[in-house]
Amino acid sequence: MERLMEWEGPNVPLLAAGTAIVAVALTVQALRQSQDAPRYRKIEQPDTTLPVLGNLVDLVRNAENLHDWVLENTMRFEGRPWKFVVPGQGETMVLSTPDALEEITSTQFKSFPKGPLQNELLGGIAADTLVTADGERWYHQRKTVVKFFSAKVLDMFVRQSIQKNIGRTHAMMEETIKAQQPVNLTDLFHDFTLDTFLEMGLGVDLKSIGATEKHSLHVAMEASSHAIFQRIGRPQWMWKLERWLNVGHEARLKSNVDKVYAGVHEIIQQSIEAMVHKKQSGEDTTNQTCMSVVELFLESPQSGEDGLTQDDFVGFILALVFAARDTTADTLVWLFYSLTKHPEIEKKLRDEMALELSGLSDDNSTYLTAEHLKSLVYLEAVIKETLRLYPAGALTLREAAEDTVICGDIFIRKGQQVMMPQFSVSRNKSVWGPDAAEFRPERWIDEATGKIKPVPPFKFFTFSAGPRICVGMNLAMMELRVVTANLLYRYRFELAGNVDGSSVAGLTLGLKDPLLVTPIAL
Fold first, then answer.
1. Among residues 229, 192, 200, 183, which one has the least CA distance to residue 64?
2. Which residues are annotated as a binding site?
3. Which residues contribute to the annotated binding site for heme?
4. Which of 56, 269, 300, 470 is least surrounded by Cβ atoms within 10 Å, i.e. has the fewest?
């Protein structure tokens, strides 16, 4: 034992020194590895985030003003990425800068499909349709719709469907003026866009404009839109349990969706009967300017699971109807609301119309076509500013299909939800400047040329961007121009009710209060 102690004693300092050297070496190696490892950005969360519950309380409290809550936090984090958590649904990352939006919608498009969650959220209205489908299924549906929204169709659209419904709108306005009653522009614009699209796409005329009662399809669509949006802020288990038990929100949703499907089924049947009658009567369609959605569907490739099948058709039409009706109608409502709040902007718009359209007859039969409106730069600026500040599709969701990194240091794990809130993007001061929240059409006009400034879609994100950019964008812009100009050419409008400018949470961004106005003939 003494020999052992004698042997160990003199070597303790050496052992300690060796240990120290090894420790230092390991530390240096660890530091080098940490320096070489990717450093991801820390993603912030709201201060109200709770253990276990995450942001469930926030979402429940803000169910009716979700867009405002997302905007509030986006502004708090000065436009930087942030995230919120819903139990059972995981983390959702919120992105609102052009570089991040470009990565998600374009550069890494294949890494960010719509995903199964969004398909479930929109189940009943738009599941497995152009809005939510991925892969080949999405490709086939989009290809069919692109054919429908061709230049020839748009020309036919303006010359026939819109012109007829503008005439009906003018007739309704004249009757209202005689009766000295206000007009509900919210109802009018939703009637207008639905009637126009159904006639254009399916050859069916609902004749809703000026009707004494709302068409049942309108009522059911509005209720369904609001109920489906409520799913976003609720844990999946909660609304799925309600759906299984057929109680609460989900019971009301099912009832309204059933009514919507019944209405759309009836309209499709009318369209098919009209098409069959046309063929049986021997009507020559060789030189037909455009084909209805029904005809395009019947000609589209039926490739089983990936393509459109007969069972898909009603859902396909339903998704188009929701998109065509609500998005454009809500934009028109916000536009005319903004003009009532900014009479100086309305005056500039009328001055431009008086100058550029001075050669036209000023009688009541004048109809302004898209060709007439090409020179109206300020009108275009007013429309774009409305679309910027009040994007109809106020948020877009995607899901990461794999672990990936965007913008160099933002890590997104597989299965994580990504929210791109157009409503917040348009008010992001780091993107649009300190006056981002102001309605200022002049921001769109180049002072040097007097023309509209080109703005990339990743900044002006209202129509989304990349391969999934809104397929009906040109149609919407044309309808907005023609409807706005024709109404302002004949009338001015004064608010007839209290409207505070609050929005309502739904599949589209609507004005909460009905826009009641008094029309005054010019």
1. 229
2. 470
3. 470
4. 269
